[in-house]
Structures are given as C-alpha cells and as structure tokens.
Amino acid sequence: MSRPSGRLDETSLPARGEKGMHSQKSHHRDIVLFLSFVGPSILFFVLVFIVPMMFGVYLTLTDWNGYASSKALVGLRNYIDVLSDGSFWKSMGNTVQYSFVSVVMVNCLAFGLAYMLTSGIRGEHWLRAVFFIPNLIGGLILGYIWRFVFSRVVVNLYAFIPLELFKQSWLSFPGTAMAAMIIVATWQYSGYIMLVYIAGFIGIPQDMIEAARIDGAKESCITRKIRIPLMVPSIVVSLFLTLTRTFKVYDLNVSLTAGGPYDSTKLAAMHIYAKAFEEQRYGVGQAEALIMFVVMAVIALTQTYIGKKREQEV
Amino acid sequence: MKKALLVCLCIAFVFPAFANGTIEQSTTVKSESSVSSEEIAQVGGSPFSKTVAITFMNSKPEITEALQAGCKAFGEKYNVEIELYESSSPGDALAKKYASGEAPTLAIVDLANIRDLYAEKLVDLSNEPWVSLGGRELGALMNGKVYGMPFTIEATGLLYNKTAIEKIIGKTFVPTDYATLDAFKALCTELQKGGMKYPVVLNSEDWSVNKTYQWIYAYQDGTIKGAIQFLKAVHDGKTTYEDNAVFQGVMDTYDYLASTNINHADPLAADYDLNASYVAEGKAAFWLNGTWAWPDFAPFAVEGMEYGICAYPINGAPAVQGKAFGAATKFIMIDTVNSSEEQKKAAKIFLNWLVFTKEGQDCLVNQCEIVPAFSNVALEPTNPFNVSLKKLINDGLLAEGVTYSPSDHRSVLAAPLQAYLAGKNSRMDIAKLLDEYWTKRLPKE
Question: What ipTM, to 2 d.p.?
Fold first, then answer.
C-alpha cells in the first residue's frame, strides 16, 4: 500500500463551497482523531496529577488537621511556619547531602557494572539478574535487613578486625548512620540503573568502535571519546531517576535508621510525614512537601537541561 | 476484536462491583438464636437476622491474634462479621481511612486520636451501660461526654526480675523499700557486688525515651491537675524546668540509670528484644518500660522466675515516692460518619459483650492479657506485670497518667533526650528545650 501524499492534485480539488465544507469536516475529524488518541491520556494526567496537585496547593493555604471536614483559609501562614521550622531545613540539608553522595555512587557503580557486563564476560546475563535483585526487595524489608547487619553483624567483626569502625553499631553515630543509608541506597539502586546503562552501551554503534580500533585508538581513549559522549542520554536519564528516587526516599529512612541517632539522618520526606500525620498539621506538612517538590524539580530539570545540551547525534 | 470485546465486557462487569468500595458480601440468615435472653439483656441486643459486616482497627498489634479469636466468637454468636486489621500508627491510619471514606466502625486508638475526631466523627457513648462501671472515670471524656471506651489500664515504671534480685541480696525484695534514689543506688551497688555488673536496661527507641519526660509531669504531685498546673506555669513564664525540683530529681535518677545501663557502651544501639531477654533471664534486674511489654517479654520469661513493676526511684519527692504512673492508655471508638446504623448497633453490642459476658471478659483478661477498666470484671490478671499493676492500684501506688501531651511531643522532644543518653546534650540543654517547648504550647485538657 502506498503512503498517501500530503498534497492533492488539481483534478481532485473540490469546488469552492465544497472545499470550505470539506476543510471544516476534515478539521472536525482531526480534532476527534486527536482527542481519541490524546484525550484519555490528558484526562488521566489531569485527574491523577493536576487535580491532586492543585488540591495540595490549596491545602497549603488552610489549617486542615487531616480529619476535620472544615478547612479555614490561613493565607500564607503555613509557608511562614515552614520558613521558621529549623528541623525541616535540617532535614532538607540531610536530604541534599544523602542524595548528592548517593547519586554519584549509584551512577559510578552502575556505569562500571554495565561496562563490565557488556564486555562479553562469561555469565554476564546471569550476573545482570544478580545485580538487579536488590531492586526487587521492598525498601522497608531492605532497611530492616541492613539494620541488623549494621547493628549486630558489624560489631561482631570487631573481634576479627579490631578497627574503631567496627567497635560500635554504625547506626549509633550520625556520620556512620548516614554512610549506612548511602551504602544501602547504592546497593539497592545500582542494579536498576545498571540496566539503563546497559541499554546505552548496547546502543553504541560497534562500527564506530571498530573504526577507532583500526585507527589505533586505545580502549581508554575509545571510552573517553566515543562511549561516554554517546552515553550522555543514558547518563541524563540515570541521573534524573536516581536524583528523584533518593530525594523523596522514606521507606529506607524509616526502617534503617528511623531518622536516628537523634534525628541526624531524618530526611525531608520523613519529616513531612511526621508533620502532616503525627503532629496533625497537614497544611504545614503539605507546604513543606511542595517546597521539597520545587527544590527537587529545579535540581532535576537543571541537570537534565545541561545534560541534553551535551548529547551527541550519532 | 473478539478479545477486545471480551476485555471490555469483563471491565464492564467487574467495575460496578467495586463501585461501592467493596464487593458485596454474601449474607447469612440466622435462623435460631443461640444466645440466652439474659445475655441479650446484658449486651442490649439480640443476634442479627442477616450478617452485619464491620471493620475493626487495632493499634495494639501485640494482642491482634487474641482479639481476633474474641471477634470470631462474638461474630458467630451475633451474626456479625468483624474484619480486624492492625495499625501501629492509629492517627495516620485513621486520617487515610476517613479521607477515603472507609473509616473502621470500631477502632482501638489513643486519647489524642479521640481528641482530634470526637467533634465530627465519633458516636457519643455516654449512655452505654459500661459507663457507670468506670467507663466515665477512665474513658475518653470530651466536653462532658464519653467518646471512647477505656480498653486497658497500663502502667509505666521499672519492670523487675524479683528472683534474680533476691538471689543476690539474699532477702525478699520489697520495691517500696527502694523508692528513693539513694536506696536504689545502694541496692544496685549490692547487685553489682553480687556479679550483676549492669543491673539496669534502658531502651533507645524514641517512643520509649520520650516517656522519660512523663516522669517529670506525673511526679509533680501525682495528679493530672498538679501536672497541668506546673506546665501552665512554665507556659506563662512563672517557673522554669531548671528551678523545678522534680525535674532535677528525675534527671538525677536518669543519669544513674544510664550509668548502670547494660547498653551503656552504645546506648542508642539497644535492641528491644535483647533488652527483654536481659531482664527475663536475670542478666539485669530492672528495665525502664511499662506493663505493655509482657507480650515481648514472655518469650524469654524463665519458668519459676517472678517479675513485676515498681516505681521510678526519686529523691526529695515524698508525695510520689514508690508510685508508678498509669491510666487507661487505649480507647475504643465507634465511627459515626462511614458506618450505618446497623453497623453502629453491632459495634455497641460488641463493646457490651466484652464488658458484661464471661466470654468477653475472658477475651480481655485471659486472651488479650490486659487489665480492663471496669469494676464488674472480677477475673484476676494473668501475666506477672498486670498482677503487679493490680497490686499497685490496690495499694494506692499508681500516680495519674499523662494524658495531656500535645501530638508533637515525641517528634520534637525525643531526639534531644536520645542525644542526652548518648552524652551529646547537657541537662541544661534539656531544661531549656522543655521551657521553649511548653512556652509555645499548652497541655491538652
């Protein structure tokens, strides 16, 4: 079947009046066609994203406690409360610190794993599955398992390896507790992000690499000059995914450290949950959630914009 | 095309079934009543002719299994299908359930939850028959009306292993002899000399550490009124924690407990189950906790060993020395928003069944192992902590519990005391923090 041409020949053109009617009909048909394809998506997008988002913004302007059927408008008072809520900003600081280090570690490890598992080593398919498995375990379960490891197993290592690091539970000190969170996040997410990088590596045209090899380029040079530039789309996606995942983490935070010791590892999502549901200050909690969303969106979109500018056409 | 049509048909049939939130339950028609007329009079209703389905949220996870058995026994008799589920955070769970229009008909909750909900969403239980049997005094009373049935009385104090203590000191352990810190220190020194290097166990969990503050409130004079008076004075700037003798006394004791804590090397790494085992097996003598700990303690309890609960030792507070503190800590509420009249009636009958029938009382005392608040329940408690609690009540050694904390008490104040336990904060820091906290808030009355 030949593809219909975008242009009509002279003989097929209708008369003037007919042309107007035809064009109107065609326009109408285009709209119906457009709506039948895009309409459901737009409808669902509005229902599950725009409406809740708008309702959330509205709640930030109320004194709702999460139960009451009436909500009094309080203007920007909740936002003023957020500005003076030192513990929220401390938890935001913790979140930025946790996200930054986790994003770097997850992506470096995932990139390395993907490179290794696309280089043709034996059992690479099996190994891909093995590295992906941690991502299948729920954050809560993962947290409880690792809690046992850092609190009970690590201290027993001291008998064999007498290092200060193993003398006490990692979850008892702010520095090591944060390190524990980052280690578990890296362990959990690396396998997932590795898949994105593997897709990127597989997508690199082999003829370019072969041509470079024929020209005498070394592997390190090929990676630097060909692989990494062509992997930029994968890197952008991976950074975006890790950043958004680590920024809004809650389950791991609750189960691994519960924000401790003494709130030093309490991340923003956990603080917001406590504010909204435990303290019954839903309006303030929602305002904090909105601020966290804006901060996360600005960081994520900025890195995506910068990354996109560096993408190479093959 | 056929497949697409089939999928559409399936969706068309299945969706309406979910439209009301639940798939319709099959109903059982009760043909004959197996309940005596005497019991019908006691519980205020006869079995339903058609099955009534209600939901029941339980925020005491340790009794879920026992409560489930009770619900089943009641349900079979009265043709009520009770779907029991648990949540350890009743406030969060109820907020979600009310937001989705699926609030449980019955819920075991905290006093703070009743305070948040009663005005719009709860059934007024003031005219229920159990109110006159202690339900009013210990129930959730809001604006003069009862909105929550008191479910259990619990006490906070030092849980002890009597056998392990007596084995070392060589005489009968009488808790009231060690009500002052000085006497308690002498006892601990004796225990240490007898080979129990660290006789005390402290928890690290924020909810548990947060309870330490409650000694400061409860020990002002042993009454809720006295505690509220003190907190209002702090709020109005008329006094400070630093100047309060009870605060200093409670903190002196806490310092001593921390220094003899079996987890002293790494106090924030304390494990709740291990803590239970230390005292149960006699490696330590005292555990700062409450009577609710029995279900976690029981698996480690050694046959033949005796356990109990006693006061938090304190110097210079004769009005409260020797007293633990306690109150009804959980309440059962009935929803009025999402529940039908029939469901509410079934819920009320269930509460009466728990209080007035032998089976119901057995469920509370023997199966759930709680201390009910009602004067008509003659069954003796079964577990050692509750036996000891009952003795404290009978001996007048139970100070009034803390029922007036604002809902953010734990989230704001627990972490600084954890830091204090780990040696990262000073007593002065805690005093200032408490001053600041209570200056901005009033106790919930």
Answer: 0.80
